[in-house]
Structure formats: structure tokens, C-alpha cells
Design goal:
2 copies of one chain form a homodimer. By secondary structure, chain A is an alpha+beta fold. Among the domains of chain A are: 3-265, Glycoside hydrolase, family 65, N-terminal domain (Beta-galactosidase, Chain A, domain 5); 394-554 and 570-615, Glycosyltransferase. Helix content of chain A is 32%, strand content 25%. The first copy, chain A, is built from 18 helices and 30 strands. In chain A, the strands form 7 sheets. In chain A, strands 1, 7, 8, 9, 10, 11, 12, 13, 14, 15, 16 and 17 form a 12-stranded antiparallel beta sheet that branches. A 5-stranded antiparallel beta sheet of chain A has the order 18-25-26-27-30. Chain A has a 4-stranded mixed beta sheet with strand order 23-24-28-29. In chain A, strand 26 (710-716) and strand 27 (719-726) form a beta hairpin. The mean pLDDT of chain A is 96. At the A-B interface, helix 13 of A face helix 13 of B.
């Protein structure tokens, strides 16, 4: 039984812990604000629905063609958290010296957060308070609260559904919006005995969101319940004595997914009419039993790290979108940083976790990208391209929502990142139907852009005016990561075109023909893609023996302005940062994680050492990549340290902005640190590749992979055991040697220590 | 007698002609709006004071360190233009078919604009109307109007001083503000018989501006005069019969220059108490007689071009700042484009005209730059530099006012452009006192920045992350123009340091010592400057045989998106534009105009041909440079065509935005097309250089140059005559041969045709 536990209440960690103790299920998320309110300190008292957005005007200091005039913004939805507790009329709150035995935890097995304490009233009487909440993993629309109070006196609970919700703002931090906005406004509200409802509307997008709350009172004693409707909220007052338990079952819907959200919310509530908190919890438990069994990573010999990995996997479960209307916000559903936008974080940091073990969830993320393909096509035209699709750097609904194009729109690599995810999904699933229906279209349309933003100069194909993952350098020529990913995108477009051109399945063949006609793709263009891919420049510096991040990067000076001011972006003008060899996050090193086949091992390792020295990790997307690649080169102590850095990022708030939400990419990356890092999982065309290593702080680890039709269990201690749990046979390359694993022919080979050359 | 004349009234050219027919004197400018108003069409009814500014919040779509949070904006001052004419109660306006014999002209000799027409009333009676106005070149605070009406009936003039003034906006054009602003607001107003006054205050900078108007009525008949005060304006109604003449003498002051602007305006008006329009015109005429005699460029054998050059010189006279509080706005005092900001246009396009012939005015422009040196020092710190000065790309008061740093703050070359102007002034004037008091400080402080934004990689000094003059490419490494200008800035800092270190004049020596101590400049730093200057990279491409605009420029593709959409900046996303070999304006070619000694002639000529082909001239700063450099290489037909393009820019509104104001840099550049272009004037350390040529459309030209203690007259026809008008002796290199010209030893040599190699 694993928990994340908080044993003391600390007002200074209040905001951070609202993120950590969020409950969510990929559809709805509720931050961990206190039901009874705080005596002091800030709160971002937010609940969010994945994919729901309003549009807000974007003002530019200087106009230019193709800059977004408006952007998507995730609204706060109605707040259902509040339940003020009165004890003989005195509000119970965590004022110093008035409480004891405070405790809060996330229960990864039950799928709830539980908080309890003893409160001492003015008249020195003791009350026992317990607050529980869950977001159902089975009924996505449901969040439930349970409030239990034991007190020898009058207990009154004031439960509130509040429609007066405003987004959070910080005028100084560029990662946070500058202005508070009331995006959803109350359109209708009402109550009927134990049911209250609130219908809200966005200001500009005309989307609506419904919230229905059912109050279920459990009391051995008599109780009174009374609703009162205010302008933007409904208050329910319940009074009783000695022992009062209130279940609040909340149903959330929205008009992206439901034609009539209020009606659908009603239907859902009706369907759940026999459920209360305890029964929902039972369903939750069952769900999680399966989840941990199928997907849980085990760490042997290190309880702390085992708990941390649970935390990470649990937060992914809570925050990753579950339908094609949504994706994964940079902060999931746990906060308002980056305004709820989806980035490449999904494809590079989160998707790889899911695709290896939860293919349906992975596929759903791709479906979302397919759904916004038309938006990406429009964006390509806006940018002056003649065809193809240019995926937005940040978005909810599909439009480009970036305010500063040199570190957003110029990051064309997102096109290849998305294509990469589709291709990896294909390697895992062999799902030719999905590919011909959706995947190929995305891969072809993204690949087309490279032919338009790249060009041959002599025999060499260059890409100019792009920004790589490292945002501390912008608008450069031949960014290594971009060129490598473009090479991949172009090459796979070419290969898939030829493969599907000759595929023998008639239905698929016909669908492919229709697709090619629809997007008007010629063999000439496809051959040009191959040519560009073959001749794209991947810069290598002979003197330093490292791959160069871009055409001028290695000519720049090393940072000499001190190391006390971090993150640099909060202290230095962008031009100052751009002028140095200083990285926010992995760039060349990340390219080598994704596409090692395009580079040479020794040069990759040299490059790793070079870039590691000049990387600030000011981005939360950095530690995990450096950690994974440290494993790749056998630097196990380093790999483990990076793993701990990744683990600490939110748990110890090392970037000091967990208040704005969990860092979902880092969370995905932490899980990848085991799978791709220590276990060294990679894919080639027809083979799983493993290069297992075990840090000395562990005795080993265990996880399962769904690959093609098989499920395999990988267990690494001093031995590497591979068990085929489902399916017929599978080829795995371990330390460079291929093994055929079939039913009853499990693999058991010794762990190699030291650098994992194939 | 030369005039610029408009023979028909065209409502569609109304806005453009308000710019063309502005009256100004470098301190105050009044657009040429009609006194009696328009029957239809847009108007930007503006008057402006040079250097006056308010501050406006700058909103960025995404925050970053060092982006301006507010910017300077030139306000409209009180409008004094309005004088509605009633004829038997009917307002006279230029409605179709109701007027005859319309005529308007700028009189370059009298220094006024005159407009007249005959108006036919409803009852078919004819009135004769004449409107004259001038901005005094002698009394800078004064603008005067004269309105004369002859009509057989009742004539009423409603003269207005209007304080309800709002700036112009265009939501689409990036060169124009997006939002109308009322920056100056009325604080006090009043009248006393023939005098009316208005005191206005800026909203944020707490600057004030006073306007006093004196009405002088000349009528053979009786007349009545009556003032009435409204909330934000004062109206004066004058009625008479048959023949009514009204002089409006307006005095403008501001609190930048006057402690009590209203009192000072009163004093000035008192001082002028005997002046009316005619006497002011007489003073104006005398001033212009001297001006044209001393500074007028003569073109032989082409009346049109002679007129055009007059237009250009006259507009410079009207729009160039006359005191150290002000400079030259991109649009002078003729409109609101670029919000009244000063750019490098001053130093590179306008200053060279003045320094050769009106040294005091040139010096005043430098004094302004010295006055904002502390602002530039602050800006350097904001940008993360440890010392030195970083001049703002655009400003009024000295703060950086740019909204988009890749095409502004990144244009570090403005530092060298300003240093260049100081140095050129020194070459012309040998003014060591000014240099030790102001010039050296600017040259040293600007040079310091190059050592901080540049770095050695091996033996080569690079400058990264800058933008050159060509804004269709941004944030590059080793921009040719920037590196060349930086080389100059560094070299001159070194040379001047050594020269002044050993200067024998004790006063100057002491001042120099104090300066070096004040700015804490070490010999080590100075030697580093020399080293950087000697080793800075000036890129040359061996294959193409041209100097490369930056480190990746020549690898990019040529523009292939058609030529129908111009200017590109209004049709394409910046990244699209940046990705091509396409220029907005001269970059490498401009470097060769300013610093030919750093390059080789043949390579320069090749480069010219190469870049000319790929330049859009979407910037108004481009034609003149290509024209001047066409002369340099002997392409006279081309040079003449560019001259005509420059001439046409405002006169024929070829960029379709003369409505926003005259293009002052182009105007300066047109004058330079004669002096630096056809005459080939350059400076070396101790010599004037000439390479005269005459386009076949002309018979020759004549102008005067003040050089060191001398004034010389240069007369070019088939002969080149150099007359020393003042001073002792002077060395001039003509076609590569040095001539010593002393009193009574004038030069007379034949014109060479063809390419002017030295």
C-alpha cells in the first residue's frame, strides 16, 4: 500500500500542495484546496475540464502578419470544493495551536486523497474532522467528496457550489498569464432538495459547462438541510449533532462533448443514483488494482523510489486526457501555468510511457492531434506555406496560442515530434488501419513543411530560421534536433508511402489511394522528401568532437555572468541568453535519445559530456533526458542523481513553481527514466531493444510492455528475466544480441554492469 | 523662384498632401489640413512639437526581461488650423462643382504655403479665398496663418483653438500605432480680446504645452470679433463684409524647454508684438535667401530635378530638430508614423547632409545623443551588460521604445551609427573641445558594448545575435554591416584614446583625464578594442565572390513566393521572410558606402550586383543607398533611376503611406544622392574625396561644403571647379589624385565619364 503523505500543515506550502494533492482523471481536475478554507495564505482554488477553452484577445507590442490575434485559455469551472465546518457556530480552520494530528495523503490504491485533524474549539472542545475526495477513473464526469465530523455539539456544514471563478495571474512570470480573467460566467443555476446545479458559459467561444452536485447526508441523528441560491452560487447548509457525514457527488459536463451538458449531467447523475462516496471508492479501488497490476512499475530495494514512481504514474493517470477532445496540458489538470495549453511535452515525454503499456490512451492522444490537423493546415497557410500542416506550438482547440514566435512558432520541430509519436505507435501496434485512416495523413502533411522551410544549398539540405527544444537559443540555422527529427519525418513519409502503395490488403490500399488523392501527394514530392532526408545537415564539429547544436552555436562564448540567477529567463534579456553557449534543456542530447540510429555512439557520448556542462536545466524537461542518456553511456551514478532531481521537481518544488501545477513532462520523463533510462528500452523497425542497468541504490525493477500482439514482463535484478505474458513470439535485442521469445521460452540472462555498448 | 505646386484638389490625396504641405521649423510642425475643413475624406489634423512626449503602457503578448514596459509617444498638440469660412452663413468647402481655380503651393523662397480658390455660393455668388501659413525659421515658437476672403456679402470667420486632440491609429499597419490616444489634455484655457490661450498637460509624463494665438484683423470695413470658451476649445468669430483678412499668430511652448510654458509663450508674443503675417514673411524670406545661397544645391539642365532637390532640402529645414532636446523623427514633424520616434535614420541619412554644410545643426543632433547617454547606459545594464551604453533603437526621451526586439534592440548597430556620426563631425570640424567634452564619451561607451556582445572563437572576433539594417533577416551571427561598423567604432575608440592621451593642449588633456577616470576606461580595455577590431569577421563568399550579409545568409533560398505582394511585411509572417535571401533595404551595400576602406572595390561591386537583385526596397531607406552606390560603380543610368525613385517616394506616394508623414531618411538620402552619389563625396582622415559624375539627364550641379575651417564651392559640369570661398587651404582627392586648394588656387579639371576607380 503506497501513499504520498503530508504530516504537518504548512501555510507556506499551501499553493504547492494544492497542485500535489489535486484529484483528477484526465477529464476533470480539482486542485487540493481545503474544503473549510484557510486561515491565511494564498490559494488557487481551481477546477478544470480538459479541452474546455475560452478565447482571449492577444495584444502584441508590435503587429506582424501571422501573429495570433487571440488565444485559447483554460477557464476555471464551477468550484465545488467548499464545505465550511461550523462547530457550535465556530468555523473550524487550521489556525495555529487550534488543531492536532493533522494528516493528509494520496492513497494510490484507493484512488483518493484523505485529510484529517482534530480541532480544538474556543471552549476547548475537541472535534474530529476528515475530508476525502476522489475523481473517478471509471466515471470520468464524477468528482466526489466526503466530509465527516465528530463533535460533541452542533455541527453545521456549509457546502457551496461557486460560479464566481477567476483565473490566476502573475504580472512578472512569463509562464503565467498576466491578467485575471473571468472566462466562464453563470448562465443558470438552481436547486431541488439534495440536488444543486449550475450552468456556465464561456464569454467568447460560446461553450457551456454544467455542474450538478448531489448532497448525501449520513447522520445517526436528526439533521436539517437548506439550500439558498445567491447570484452566482448555491449554498447548502446542513446541521446536526455529534456525528455528521456528508457525501457530495459532483457531475461535470461540457458542450464540447455533450450537446446539452445540463441534461447529460442529469442523466449521468441518474445513472449513478445508487452510488455514494463509498461505492464510488470501491469501483475506484478495483480500477486501480488492475492498473497497478498491468502498468505499475516495481522498484526493488528502495521503498522511497518505489513510492516516487507510484506518485508519477498516479499523476499521469490523473492528468492525461482520455478522449480525442483533449490532450495533456503542460500542468495537466492541476494548475493554471501555461494557461492549460498542450505542447510537444505530450509526444516526447508522456506518450512514450503510454504507448508501451496503455496503447488505447496513447492512441487517444494521437486522435486529438488528428482532430486538429485542419487547424494545423490553416496555420501553415497563415505562415505562408503552400501546403502541409504546421502544428501549433501551444494550443487547446488547435489554433496557435503563442505570444512570442521565436520560442514557439519557430519550433517547427513539433511537427516532427507529432509525426514521431504516430510512427512509434505504429511500430508498437502495427495498426495499419489507424495509419491509413489518420496516421499517414499527419506524417505526410507534417513532412511537407520541411520541404518548404528547408532548401538545398549545393548538395546539402539546410533548415533555416527555426528554434530547437533549447529555448535559450532561438531562430538559428540547422538546429541539430530539428534537422534530425525532420530527417526522420521525411524518411518515414517516404517509407510509409512506398509501403502502403504496395500493401496487399484491398481495403487499406483503397483508403490509401483516396488519401493520396485528397492531399494531392505526388511521387515526385515523396522522392524529394527522401532526397532531403538523405542530405540534411547534421552538424558535427571536428575540433571539439561533438555534434553542434546549430550552425553558429559552438562559436559563441561560454556563459560568464555567474550562476546565482536561475532560471536565466527571469533575470536576463533573451538576446543576452541567446548570445551564449548555454542551454535551458537538452537539444542534441534529446535527439540522440529519440534517434540514435542517425548518430555515432562515441560522438554522442562526447556530445553528452559537452552539453551537460552548459545546461542549466531551467526547463523542467531537461533532467529526465540527461538522466536517461546518462544510463545510455553507463554513467549510472549520474543517471540516478538525475532521477532524484526529476523526482524532486514537484515533490520538493525545486523549480519553485509547482504552485502553478505539476510538471507533467517531467513526470512522464521520470517514468521514462526507468523504462528508457535504466532498462534502456528503444525500438527499431522490428525489434525491442533493451540495455538494462541497475543503479546501486536499487536491487532491480520490473515493468510490463505491450508490443505488437504481445505483453511481456521485464524483470531486472542481477538477472534479466523476460516473460511473455500474452501473445506468440517477440524479438528482443538485449545488449546487442537478439533473442526470440516465444511462449514458454522465457529469457533469463545476467545483468551486465558498466557501459552498455551493443 | 521654386515652388511645389498642386493645381487640383483631390480628396483621395488629402491625407498624403497634409504631410507634403506641412509647415514646420524643426521645433513645431503643422500638417497641411484645410483651415475651412473638408467636405469629405479622412484627415489627420495634427500639430506636433519636436521632443515632446507622453508615456504609454506597452503590452507584450509574452513577458520577458528587459522588454520595455512603457514607451514614448509624440502627442498631438492644440490644433490652431481651423478657421471656418461662412459666406452669408454658408460654409465654404471644396464640394464638387462649387469651386474654381484651386491652387496650392509651397514657396521655397518665401517659406510659406499658399492655397487659394474661388468659391461659388448657393446663390451663385463668387468668393475669393486665400489661405497662407508659415512656421518661422527665425522665431521657432511661431506658426502664423493668414486667411483672406473677398466676397460681396457677409463674411464670417470662425477661428478655433482646439484642445480635443487624439493621436491617429491603424489597427493593421505595424508602422502605425494601434490605438487612438488622447495624450495631451486641457488644463487651462482663456481669452482676452485678441488673445486666446490653451495650456495642456500630458497624462503620464507631467509635461505641459502652451499655445497662445493672437488674432489680427485687417478689414477696410467694420468688423465684429467675439470669443467664446468651450470645455476644450476657444472659438473666435469675426464678421465683416466684402473683404476680410485675418492673421493668426500662434506661439507654442513646452515645459521641456521652458520652466513656465504659458508665461514664456506670453513673453515671446510680447516680443513679437509688432509682427503680423507679412512682417514674419519678410523675416522668413531673408532667412531663406541666406539658406539657399549657402546650402542650396543647384542642378543644371533639369528644372524638375532642381525643384525636387529644393523640396528635399526645404523639408529637411522644416523637420530636423534645432536644439539638443530634440532630433529627427522618422516622419519629422509631418505625421504620426512611428509615433514620433527617432531612429538611426538621423545619423546615417540626415546628419551627413548637415555636417557637410550646416555644422551647427549637425552638432545639435549630436548634443541630443549626448543628452540621452545616461539613458543608454541604463539600457545597457537592463540588457545585462556590465558597462557601456546601448542606445535605444527608437526613442524620444532616451528610453527604448521598441515592441519587437529582434528588429530593434537586436539592431545594436545603432551604437556604431551614432559613434560614426560623432567621428565624422570630428573629421569635418576638428572640434577637439566638443570631442573631449562629449564625443569621446559616446564613442568609448558605445564601443564597450561590442566587447560584451562579441567574442573570440579562435583568432576570429564574432558578433552573435544581432540584426543588421536589413530587417528582413533577424538575429544572426556576424552581420556584415554590424561587424564593419563595430570594427570602425572599436578602431576609432582606440585611435582617439591614444591621440587624446598624448594631446598637448593642457585643458583638453585634463578634461580627457577626468573623462577616462569617470568612465573607468583602462588601457587594457582599449587594447582589447583594437584587437577585436583587427580580427572581426567580415564574411566573404569565395564561390559567389560577394561579401556575405551574415553567417548563413547565402545558404538560404532565393525568394520564390511571387513579387505581387509588397511590402512583404504586410503579407508574410516574419519567419517566412527571414528564411529567404530577400532584403528590405541595403545592408552590405550600405556598409560599403560608409566604410569603403575596409573592403575591396571589385568585391564591393560584385556584392552590389548580387544584393541589388534581391532587394525589395520595402524600406524607404533603400533606394538612395543603392543609387549612391550605383554612382560609385559608374552605373549612372541606374543611379539616376534610383534618384527618381527617391524623389517620387513622397511626392508620388509610391509607398502609399506618405499620409503618415514624410520619409525623412529618404529625403536626406535624396540630397546625399547628389553629394555622395553623383559627386562621390567621401572623407578620409585628412582629405575630402570626390569622384564626380553627371547623369546624362543633367548638365551638372553645384553645392558648397564646410570642411575644417574652409568653405568650398563644388561646381561640376564638363569641368570640375573647386572654389575656396573661405579659409586657407584644403586637400581634396579627385579621382584618386590629391589637389591642394588654397586661396586663389582654384581647381578646374575635366569631368571623367565611366566608372570612377581611384
Amino acid at each position: 500500500m503506497y501513499r504520498y503523505e503530508e504530516k504537518n500543515y504548512d501555510p507556506l506550502s499551501q499553493l504547492k500542495n494544492e497542485s500535489i494533492f489535486m484529484v483528477g482523471n484526465g477529464y476533470v481536475g480539482v486542485r487540493g484546496a481545503f474544503e473549510e478554507g484557510y486561515p491565511s495564505g494564498d490559494s488557487i482554488r481551481g477546477s478544470y475540464i480538459n479541452g474546455l477553452y475560452d478565447r482571449v484577445e492577444m495584444i502584441h507590442a508590435e503587429k506582424a502578419v501571422g501573429l495570433p490575434k487571440e488565444y485559447d485559455k483554460q477557464p476555471k469551472i464551477a468550484d465545488t470544493q467548499t464545505c465550511i465546518v461550523y462547530l457550535d457556530g465556530e468555523p473550524a480552520q487550521l489556525v495555529n495551536t487550534k488543531y492536532k494530528n493533522y494528516n493528509r495523503y494520496i492513497d494510490y490504491d484507493n484512488g483518493e486523497t484523505v485529510r484529517s485533524y482534530e480541532f480544538i474549539t474556543r471552549s476547548n472542545k475537541k472535534a474530529y474532522l476528515k475530508f476525502r475526495r476522489l475523481a473517478s477513473f471509471v466515471y470520468y464526469n464524477v468528482v466526489a467528496y466526503k466530509i465527516e465530523v465528530i463533535y460533541d455539539g452542533e455541527i453545521a456544514l456549509l457546502s457551496v457550489i461557486d460560479g464566481d471563478v477567476t483565473t490566476y495571474a502573475d504580472p512578472n512570470d512569463p509562464r503565467i498569464s498576466s491578467e485575471q480573467k473571468q472566462l466562464l460566467k453563470v448562465k443558470d443555476l438552481g436547486e431541488n432538495a439534495d440536488i444543486s446545479y449550475l450552468l456556465m458559459n464561456t464569454s467568447n467561444t460560446n461553450l457551456s459547462q454544467a455542474t450538478i452536485v448531489k448532497h448525501i447526508v449520513l447522520s445517526e441523528n436528526e439533521y436539517a438541510i437548506e439550500n439558498s441560491i445567491k447570484e452566482t452560487k448555491i449554498e447548502t447548509m446542513i446541521t446536526s449533532n455529534f456525528h455528521l457525514t456528508l457525501d457530495k457527488v459532483c457531475v461535470f459536463t461540457d458542450s464540447l462533448r455533450y450537446a446539452d451538458p445540463l441534461r447529460s449531467a442529469n442523466d449521468i447523475l441518474e445513472h449513478l443514483s445508487y452510488e455514494n462516496y463509498e461505492t464510488l471508492l470501491e469501483i475506484q479501488k478495483n480500477y486501480l488494482r488492475d492498473f497497478w497490476h498491468n502498468s505499475g512499475i516495481k522498484i526493488y530495494g528502495n521503498e522511497n523510489d518505489q513510492k516516487s514512481i507510484r506518485f508519477m504514474q498516479y499523476q499521469l493517470l490523473q492528468n492525461v486526457g482520455i478522449d480525442p477532445y483533449s490532450n495533456v496540458s503542460a500542468k495537466g489538470l492541476s494548475g493554471e501555468g501555461y494557461e492549460g495549453h498542450y505542447f510537444w511535452d505530450t509526444e516526447i515525454y508522456i506518450f512514450p510511457v503510454l504507448v508501451a503499456n496503455q496503447p488505447q490512451r496513447a492512441k487517444s492522444l494521437l486522435e486529438y492531434r488528428y482532430n486538429i490537423l485542419d487547424s494545423a493546415r490553416n496555420r501553415a497557410l497563415e505562415l505562408g506555406h503552400r501546403k502541409g500542416a504546421a502544428y501549433p506550438w501551444r494550443t487547446i482547440s488547435g489554433i496557435e496560442c503563442s505570444g512570442y514566435f521565436p520560442a514557439s512558432t519557430a519550433q517547427y520541430h513539433i511537427n516532427a515530434d507529432i509525426a514521431y509519436a504516430f510512427y512509434i505507435y505504429y511500430l508498437y501496434s502495427e495498426d495499419t488501419v489507424f495509419m491509413v485512416e489518420k496516421g499517414l495523413e499527419v506524417i505526410f502533411e507534417t513532412a511537407r513543411i520541411w520541404l518548404q522551410i528547408g532548401n538545398f544549398s549545393g548538395d546539402v539540405f539546410h533548415i533555416h530560421e527555426v528554434t530547437g527544444p533549447d529555448e535559450y537559443t532561438a531562430i538559428v540555422s540547422d538546429n541539430y534536433y530539428t534537422n534530425m527529427m525532420a530527417k526522420f519525418n521525411l524518411e518515414k513519409a517516404y517509407e510509409l508511402y512506398n509501403y502502403f502503395s504496395e500493401i496487399e490488403n484491398e481495403t487499406i490500399s483503397e483508403k490509401f489511394r483516396v488519401l493520396i488523392e485528397k492531399i494531392n501527394l505526388s511521387e515526385e514530392e515523396i522522392n524529394l522528401m527522401k532526397n532531403a532526408s538523405d542530405n540534411i545537415l547534421l552538424l558535427y564539429d571536428n575540433n571539439l568532437g561533438v555534434y553542434s547544436q546549430d550552425s553558429t552555436f559552438l562559436e559563441k562564448p561560454l556563459w560568464d555572468l555567474g550562476s546565482d540567477k536561475r532560471p536565466l529567463l527571469l533575470y536576463y534579456h533573451p538576446l543576452t541568453i541567446y548570445r551564449y553557449q548555454i542551454l535551458k534543456q537538452a537539444d542534441v542530447v534529446l535527439a540522440h535519445l529519440l534517434l540514435e540510429e542517425y548518430a555515432e555512439l562515441e560522438k554522442m557520448e562526447n556530445s553528452y559530456k559537452y552539453y551537460e556542462n552548459i545546461t542549466t536545466h531551467d526547463s523542467s524537461l531537461s533532467y529526465c533526458i540527461y538522466g536517461i542518456m546518462a544510463s545510455r553511456y553507463g554513467f549510472l551514478e549520474k543517471a540516478y542523481n538525475y532521477f532524484i532531481q526529476s523526482v524532486s521537481l514537484d515533490i520538493h518544488d525545486t523549480h519553485q513553481n509547482t504552485k502553478d501545477g505539476l510538471h507533467l513532462a517531467n513526470i512522464g520523463g521520470t517514468v521514462l527514466s526507468v523504462i528508457q533510462g535504466f532498462a534502456g528500452l528503444r525500438l527499431s523497425e522490428n525489434t525491442l531493444i533493451l540495455r538494462p542497468s541497475v543503479p546501486q541504490q536499487w536491487q532491480g525493477y520490473n515493468f510490463k510492455i505491450n508490443y505488437k500482439d504481445c505483453i511481456i514482463e521485464i524483470d531486472v535484478t542481477n538477472q534479466i528475466n523476460i516473460n511473455l505474458l500474452e501473445g506468440n513470439e517477440i524479438t528482443i535485442k538485449i545488449y546487442g544480441q537478439e533473442y526470440l521469445i516465444s511462449n514458454g521460452n522465457n529469457i533469463n540472462i545476467p545483468l551486465q554492469r558498466g557501459m552498455c555498448h551493443d
